[in-house]
Specification:
The chain is an alpha+beta fold and about 180 residues long. The chain has one domain: Aminopeptidase, CATH 3.40.630. About 35% of the residues lie in helices and about 30% in strands. The strands form two sheets. The protein has a four-stranded antiparallel beta sheet, with helices on both faces. Strands 5-7-6 form a three-stranded antiparallel beta sheet. Strand 6 and strand 7 form a beta hairpin. Helix 1 crosses helix 3. It is globular and about 40 Å long. About 25% of the residues are buried. Pfam families: Acetyltransf_1. This is GNAT family N-acetyltransferase. It comes from Nocardioides hwasunensis.
């Protein structure tokens, strides 16, 4: 497997991977109409990925199988959440890590092969980070928990369901 930064020439393959991975990961969580609408907007998605990659506003890594098939991707960048978001129980906001894992998707044919772990390591290593996960996506939740992420109580509605925030704090000693 090779992990390489995405280029604008990868926008079409990345769009197709994202569409496929969504259907594979969320088949039991979302209605078929959501997937159909996303597929109908494929051209706009390709253009959006082209613009995102061109702008360099996030780091986008692609995992390629030995036979040259795109099997996964990750996107990371500066956290997009407001630092003044209060917690659900009304307590003052928690300081969030500066780094956000915006996306990590792997084709179902590559589940359990180490592609997701390799992408996560290449994208954020052992850094503190946070992410949003779709409520009910148990496979992803278990994966992130194994990597040290924990729910911090924040949740937000999205067009496709409730998203819950997970945060990973460093367990390494600080200083020196």
């Amino acid at each position: 497997m090779r992990i390489l930064p995405a280029t604008v020439e990868d926008a079409e393959a990345l769009s197709d991977l994202q569409l496929d991975a969504w259907e594979e990961a969320y088949a039991d969580l979302l209605p078929a109409s959501v997937f159909a609408a996303r597929r109908a907007a494929r051209a706009a998605r390709v253009e959006r990925w082209h613009d995102i990659i061109s702008a360099g506003s996030s780091a986008n890594l692609l995992a390629w199988s030995p036979d040259g098939r795109l099997v996964g991707f990750s996107s990371t960048g500066p956290g997009r959440d407001s630092p003044d978001d209060t917690q659900r129980d009304g307590r003052p906001p928690l300081e969030l890590p500066a780094l956000e894992l915006m996306a990590l998707y792997v084709r179902a044919t590559a589940y359990g092969s180490g592609v997701g772990f390799a992408l996560l390591q290449a994208a954020i290593g052992a850094a503190e980070a946070y992410l949003w996960v779709l409520d009910g996506n148990e496979r992803a939740i278990r994966f992130y928990e194994r990597q040290g992420f924990r729910f911090n109580g924040a949740a937000k509605p999205d067009d496709v369901g409730l998203e819950r925030r997970m945060v990973r704090r460093s367990t390494e000693p600080r200083g020196c």
